[in-house]
């Protein structure tokens, strides 16, 4: 039943001290140059603390000034921060870290790793760093971007994940042992995002390496989810990958589902695939019809559409950015402003926010320095130039520095009500939160290139253009240059076919011209139809067999920047009674 939600704003958090560059009495927008330098200082305080206290562990524990492994013992923060170094302009440290990773990271280890997290953080981070290596002054191989040490590392990591996809449905398990494959007792229940968040990284790998297996398994997983949607067009948030039956039937845009929708849009742009975009647009209709109330998005039962949880989750704050990517700016801004009121209320976004009550949900009061609202602000600012979006960036810098900064980095906020801290600094703080803040305040960054500059690169398959812009971020904010996917096609049959057909066409044109001159007085010309001619039915049939129809859509006009989403509570299943 539809109902109108009344959201009390509550008491706003105590005003933070205004620094130089913050809006003054005249209401001027924050000074981007000032906050750009503040964000850069934040990055190096966190990054240097990790190097000094936590490396080679995955992540920093900022309250005890030490480190711990969280996602597989990959020196994960170093991989996640690598492309951020280049975006901040630090080419020398980028070059140093590339060598460190080559010497120290090993994927042939007896570790149970999250398939989802390893893909978005490790595979995505290595692919992005590989494609940015030349810009960072790294001496690249002759075959780059179709070969290189970071690409080989990304491929090795991705191959360790492939056993997870060997299920009756093609949907992957959530965890895989990097040495032994899927453990015999592994649970078959996986969240929707953990199934549908591979097409960006895996299609890029297939294009760069020439091995189609990565893109193939990612596409199968996407299609199985699509085929599993309910009659009203919704998907739940956890499914059994062996049987294809939904275990948790709450439908929404947040935790457990989020990046599935994100990757349908970004996969469509990256691969120019209109089927993926059509799938998202169908989902978008159902989401609007059943989960949207007054520009908030609730959780509903996937088969009935009835409200099961009237909550806003911090992970949902990526949605305005996703709306802007498909050009739905007005709706995006209205939803963004709803989420911004929550930030102003607490100085951050609590993991769960009860919309009717206008307050946090018990045991979900924390803010682990997530990037999603900042990401949407960056996206929308690129689209609109609205200074309100810079104000969110200012508020984020001031809040994080005041509440979260400690001697050894930045600590997760355990409770936004009293600002208690937790002993963890997630790697996405450097991969995403700081990166999106910096890009929000740096309008001339190379990531925002509009095509006015580019690099012409000679590859084994000819010349191609790179670095012209349109970067597509994966869900961990690792930018992928879409042009690179067209540089390294190993199967040259399509190009050879076009060249052969063009030569045949011009040869036929010359023959036709000569034939017409000879027979102009003897009646109308009819094209030859024998074997070997351009119009031969046999040639047309061979062409159809060799080159399947390619799905294309027009390029979208907005910048192709990504949306980040994480699983707020790994393994949590939302039940109807919650």
Automatic annotation (TrEMBL):
Gene3D superfamilies: 1.50.10.10
SUPFAM superfamilies documented for this protein: Seven-hairpin glycosidases
Pfam families: Glyco_hydro_47
Protein name, per record: alpha-1,2-Mannosidase
GO MF annotations, alphabetized: calcium ion binding; mannosyl-oligosaccharide 1,2-alpha-mannosidase activity
Biological processes per GO annotation: carbohydrate metabolic process; endoplasmic reticulum mannose trimming; positive regulation of retrograde protein transport, ER to cytosol; response to unfolded protein
Signal peptide: 1-21
InterPro entries for this protein: 6hp_glycosidase-like_sf (IPR012341), EDEM1/2/3 (IPR044674), Glyco_hydro_47 (IPR001382), Seven-hairpin_glycosidases (IPR036026)
Subcellular location per the Swiss-Prot or TrEMBL entry: Endoplasmic reticulum
Superkingdom of the organism of origin: Eukaryota
Purpose of the protein: Involved in the endoplasmic reticulum-associated degradation (ERAD) pathway that targets misfolded glycoproteins for degradation in an N-glycan-dependent manner. May initiate ERAD by promoting the first mannose trimming step of ERAD substrates, from Man9GlcNAc2 to Man8GlcNAc2. Seems to recognize and bind to exposed hydrophobic regions in target proteins.
Residues reported in the UniProt entry to bind Ca(2+): 475
Comp. bias regions, Basic and acidic residues: 538-548
Cofactor(s) named in the record: Ca(2+)
Family: Belongs to the glycosyl hydrolase 47 family.
